[in-house]
Specification:
heterodimer, A: Ubiquitin-like (UB roll), Rossmann fold, 2 domains, 5-stranded mixed β-sheet, 4-stranded parallel β-sheet, about 15% strand, B: alpha/beta, 3 domains, globular, binds flavin mononucleotide, binds iron/sulfur cluster
């Protein structure tokens, strides 16, 4: 086939878009996103194909033998430019204060094609500003109607929180009855904000508050970073996905003015010790099974809202950053002579749902919140850029002690299957009292939607499953309800690939982004000297000096929680419809 | 006193209605009380229009002669010797192109399934079930039948590609959404001959190997849908639907679905989305419905009129069908005549008939004060055809001359309508009906409406803005996702051309 007059040969069927990208030919896109199926609606990836009367979209057309096509003919360019003019017609000039300024696909396209405001600004037909959710913010005046959020929520999570309603110019991605998104079944995973090409859906921005805190606060500000941020943050500065930049990130956080830089991986090790012991206890007591992991707050929301029976099976262990927050405000505060009120804990997370999690009533301890702010990886990138910190040329620095010490088991929390693998490493040794012959559990690795295995621990056979994406989860839970499958222990992560594919991670159009980040995570694990959570010396010391024993009294207070059935709460959405009709 | 003016199609073509109007005018001017009657059965004559004044037959060629006849024959009550005709042609011979009742074969002839069967109904089904599916497809292919929903895709080819698909399940869908303003042929069929539609669907399902069919009917047709519902349950009772139809081992289930009333739901892929329970928005093609249609399975979507022709073709054979119409467009087509037409009817004529005949012979010209200025053919997204081009032959090739056949809508527009009226009407419709999926159509329609509304407000035509509109619709054509955005250039550009030629003000 020929592209732009040059001959190429390919041996497998691919879309024209993939083909062009493979050989380095740029084709603009706006509604196409590798995480969802094609919509073919933005009409940016137009190409001219010999023998076709009209222009065709590269994302939906497959290459054929002898095909002749042009990607940048005058006809193509005229159409793309015109379609961009039309989008500009409905898009406000708010870039200066927009959350995604500089990281916006529309801005890039307008820039690239030099599209001025040749058509008057008529405003968007919708100007809903929905700040109801602590996780995501919707500013629909900026919506370019690309359908990505609708498809992401439907195809990844099967929650279909949004649907495109109305027709023509007046359409927009609406929640049922235009209810505030927080009151719908939305679990706050942020996948919609990850795929939104513009600033119409973003994380709920909290970075400005943190900036103020750092610039003129008088409190001790502690920051912790999740396992998955270190393999993604560099993408905010143009690096390849999967670039490990732990040390540079720590250095940047110090330059931003945080007093202590801790590692959520410490919290992850602690989680494994607590959750692993909880599991061992259940194994010894004979149930209740299955036990589900509870470190993904979007999954916890989902269980509470959609499958309330699951709440009785969730591990009571808090998520790692909540554990670290609680320890920082007690054990560590004591060490530096402070009270919980004097300390502010900020978590840097790949996740938007964690912004929602920290506000849960059940997690408040004696009136204080273990974590005060959650910033996404993207927000951290923005802070670093705003402060002019030259991220890529920073030296590598280490986390502060003692809450910065961690093992390889904690590192893999960031990828689907990681929590399971980490738990198995510990559970095996606790149950059998022997050393694991091989630390890697290949059965739980990989990116298949659902993976299950039967693991022999001593004389016991443990059936486990690992699942990511709530659509896959829904299918698995329904199978459990029908009694088709049985497991002892199930790990669930709401986002594709686990936290590395989290809704707060740097936006990316690289179809392999999840795989690349996952490889980096396993690389970190391999580089660690200690690879089992219960071997973490700082954890051992913590138990000795403070907590005494796993599942002990202090642990229960600081490190465990409970859940409630919220399945009735979001059902009554038509009241928003009634309200609208009354006014 | 009574004046009868011949109103048979041939006379109408020659302008008899204008003469009739003129007599009315004269009676007003001269304050003479006369009854002017248009009589389709008066017969006609050669070289003029037949007029009957008090039992005497005259031939008038133009208004000048009509005026003379009025003064001498009506007012003075004399015989006007030089206008008298001797030989009057009987009415049947006068009609140039006769209606051919293929679709209309059973109209008004039966009330229930027994009536239909006594007219030879379901015989085609029996015949088809004895044939191999490939043979049925072959027959339809040979007939040259092309889709009557608007796009004119060869029906046999469509069936063939669905037949070739390997799948555990296939569907046939009847498109009875008929959202096209000015088109009401499918409604008439469902009212008059629901069983032929059902029979056509069963045959199509048998031909492509489908086990389930949907009739997607627009919500506003709930009254005639009752008729269809009744017919479907009758067909179930008689064993034409359901399991093991007529002992052939072939099962087919048929259900009715109601549309929500949007125009775009008539587009086949949007229709499938709607049946699946989503908002009606077009899908990109390929994959075509015959490859991945309803619920991802191979699906054949056909218009009502297309399907109703199928039993006739199976019974009478492809060759018989090809006797009507033209080489490229065999057979007959239903035309819905409306707008300013004197007579709003559905007529069935062989393809290749001239627009003039449809307008004058069957629609009987325009009513009211104005005169015919143009005709919009093919539906809202069809072209405007000026009076000058009215002799064009209507078939699927007419697009080459800038005349769309589309769904067979013939909308008469008189010279009282201005360019801005018509343009605003078109663009308001499409701005309202764009499904909103793709950028060029969604925002382009909105922008055009703004531009035209501004001109309407200011009351004058801005020629620069018209150039902008041309650019918008051409890029819309080139880059839109579905047939809606791809065809709006038809009305807009043909209208602008007429404005430039001074054929509309
Ligand atoms: C905007 C739009 C509206 C349409 N509306 C109708 C309709 O109301 N009825 C119909 O039969 N076909 C309609 N069509 C054509 C269908 O997409 C499709 O071509 C047709 O149903 C195929 O059947 P046929 O091959 O028998 O014509 C429409 C097409 C477009 C692009
Ligand atoms: S979404 Fe993009 S183009 Fe729109 S205001 Fe924000 S940065 Fe600018
Ligand atoms: S945050 Fe997740 S659940 Fe909520 S609307 Fe977005 S994608 Fe759906
Ligand atoms: S909110 Fe964002 S992702 Fe959703 S349709 Fe609008 S621009 Fe696309
Ligand atoms: S062309 Fe118009 S109707 Fe068709 S998909 Fe695009 S927006 Fe919808």
């Amino acid at each position: 086939m020929t592209i732009n007059g040059r001959e190429y040969e390919f041996d497998k069927p691919m879309t024209v878009l993939d083909t062009a990208r493979k050989v380095g030919i740029y084709i603009p896109t706006l509604c196409y996103h590798p995480r969802i199926t094609q919509n073919g609606s933005c009409r940016m990836c137009l190409v001219e194909i010999e023998g076709q009367r009209l222009l065709q979209t590269a994302c939906t057309t497959y290459i054929r033998d002898g095909m002749k096509l042009w990607t940048h003919s005058e006809r193509v360019k005229a159409a793309v430019r015109h379609n961009l003019e039309l989008l500009r017609m409905i898009h406000p000039d708010d870039c200066q204060t927009c959350e995604v300024n500089g990281r916006c696909e529309l801005q890039d396209l307008l820039q690239r094609f030099g599209v001025e405001r040749t058509i008057d600004y008529y405003g968007n037909a919708v100007d809903i500003l929905d700040e109801s959710s602590p996780a995501i913010r919707r500013d629909l005046e900026k919506c370019v109607k690309c359908f990505r959020c609708v498809k992401a929520c439907e195809e990844i999570q099967d929650l279909s929180v949004y649907a495109m309603i109305k027709r023509g110019h007046y359409e927009y991605p609406a929640t049922a009855f235009d209810a505030p998104v927080y009151n719908t079944v939305c679990v706050g995973c942020g996948q919609c904000s990850f795929v939104c090409p513009v600033g119409a859906i973003t994380e709920k921005p909290d970075w400005r508050k943190v900036l103020e805190l750092l610039e003129d606060g008088d409190k001790v500000v502690i920051v912790q970073t999740a396992p998955a941020t270190r393999v993604a943050i560099a993408e905010e500065f143009g690096a390849e996905p999967g670039t490990i930049s732990t040390g540079k990130m720590v250095a940047a956080l110090r330059r931003l003015g945080f007093d202590y830089v801790f590692d959520t991986n410490f919290g992850a090790d602690l989680t494994i010790v607590e959750e692993g012991n909880e599991f061992v206890e259940r194994v010894n007591k004979g149930g209740p099974f299955p036990m589900f992991t509870s470190c993904c707050p979007a999954w916890v929301n989902y269980a509470e809202k959609v499958f309330p029976w699951v709440t009785k099976h969730l591990s009571s262990a808090r998520s790692p950053h909540m554990m670290l927050g609680a320890i920082a405000k007690t054990y560590f505060a004591d060490k530096i002579g402070k009270k919980p009120e004097d300390i502010v804990v900020v978590s840097i997370m790949p996740c938007t749902a964690k912004k929602d999690e920290i506000l849960r009533d059940q997690l408040i301890i004696d009136g204080w919140q273990p974590v005060d702010y959650v910033l996404t990886t993207r927000e951290l990138g923005k802070l670093i850029r705003l402060k002019g910190i030259p991220f890529m040329s920073l030296p590598e620095e280490d986390y502060d002690h003692p809450l910065g010490v961690s093992t390889g088991a904690a590192a893999i929390f960031g990828v689907t299957g990681g929590v399971m693998e980490a738990a198995l490493r510990t559970a095996y040794e606790v149950i059998t009292g022997e050393t694991l012959p091989k630390v890697e559990f290949d059965e739980v690795r990989g990116l298949d939607g659902v993976r299950d295995a039967t693991i022999k621990i001593g004389d016991k056979e443990v059936k486990i499953a690992v699942v990511h994406g709530l659509k896959n989860t829904e299918m698995l839970l329904k199978k459990m309800e029908r009694g088709e499958v049985f497991y002892h222990f199930v790990e669930v992560m709401a986002c594709p690939g686990g936290c590395i594919g989290g809704g707060g991670q740097p936006k990316s159009l690289d179809p392999d982004v999840i795989r690349k980040r996952a490889e980096a995570i396993y690389e970190i694990d391999e580089m660690m000297e200690l690879r089992k959570s219960h071997e973490n010396p700082a954890i051992k010391q913590l138990y000795k000096e403070f907590l005494k024993k796993p599942l002990g009294e202090l642990s229960e207070k600081l490190l465990h929680t409970h859940y409630r059935d919220r399945s009735k709460e979001y059902l009554n959405l038509w009241k928003y419809y009634e309200k609208e009709r009354v006014s | 006193m009574k004046i009868k003016v011949a109103a048979d199609p041939k006379s109408v073509l020659e302008g008899s209605l204008e003469i009739a109007n003129y007599f009315g005018y004269l009676s007003g001017v001269h304050h003479v009380q006369v009854d002017v009657e248009r009589d389709a059965n008066l017969g006609s004559c050669v070289g003029g229009i037949l007029v009957d004044v008090g039992g005497e037959k005259y031939r008038v060629k133009d208004k000048k002669e009509a005026a003379r006849l009025f003064v001498q024959g009506v007012i003075l009550r004399k015989k006007v010797e030089d206008l008298v005709v001797k030989k009057v042609l009987p009415p049947e011979e006068a009609r140039i192109t006769q209606e051919v009742p293929i679709v209309k074969r059973n109209f008004g002839k039966y009330r229930d399934i027994d009536g239909y069967i006594s007219l030879g109904g379901y015989e085609a089904l029996k015949k088809a079930l004895k044939m191999k599916p490939e043979k049925v497809v072959e027959e339809v292919k040979n007939s040259g039948l092309r889709g009557r929903g608007g796009a004119g895709f060869p029906t046999g080819l469509k069936w063939e590609s669905a037949l070739k698909e390997k799948s555990s399940e296939k569907f046939v869908v009847c498109n009875a959404d008929e959202g096209e303003p000015g088109t009401f042929k499918d409604r008439v069929i469902i009212e008059e001959d629901p069983h032929a539609l059902i029979e056509g669907m069963i045959i199509s399902a048998y031909a492509v190997g489908a086990s389930k069919g949907y009739i997607y009917i627009r919500g506003e047709y709930s009254d005639v849908a009752e008729n269809l519902k009744k017919a479907i349950s009758e067909a179930y009772d008689k064993g034409f639907l359901g399991e093991d139809i007529l002992g052939s081992g072939f099962d087919f289930e048929l259900v009715l679905r109601f549309g929500g009333g949007s125009y775009i739901a008539g587009e086949e892929t949007a229709l499938l989305e709607s049946i699946e329970g989503r908002a009606a928005r077009s899908r990109f093609k390929p994959p075509y419905p015959t490859q991945k249609g309803l619920f991802g399975k191979p699906t054949v979507v056909n218009n009502v009129e297309t399907l109703v022709k199928v039993p006739w073709i199976i019974l009478n054979g492809a060759e018989q069908y090809k006797k009507y119409g033209t080489e490229s467009s065999p057979g007959t087509k239903l035309f819905s005549i409306c707008g300013k037409a004197n007579k709003r009817v559905v007529v069935e004529l062989p393809l290749g008939v001239t627009l003039r005949e449809i307008v004058y012979a069957y629609g009987e010209g325009v009513y009211g004060e104005g005169e015919l200025a143009m005709v919009q053919t093919g539906g809202k997204a069809g072209t405007f055809v000026s009076k000058e081009k009215i002799d064009v032959k209507l078939d699927f090739d007419a697009v080459k001359e800038g005349v769309s056949l589309g769904s067979g809508a013939i909308v008469l527009i008189d010279d009282k309508s201005t360019f801005l009226d018509i343009a605003l009407n078109v663009i308001e419709f499409f701005e309202h009906e764009s499904c909103g999926k793709c950028t060029p159509c969604r925002e382009g329609m909105f922008l055009m409406k703004k531009i035209v509304s501004k001109m309407v407000e200011e009351g004058k035509i801005d020629y620069d803005a018209l150039q902008e509109i041309e650019r918008i619709v051409l890029i819309m054509k080139d880059s839109s996702l579905c047939g809606l955005g791809q065809s709006v250039h038809n009305p807009m550009i043909s209208l602008i051309r007429m404005l430039e030629r001074g054929e509309v003000a």
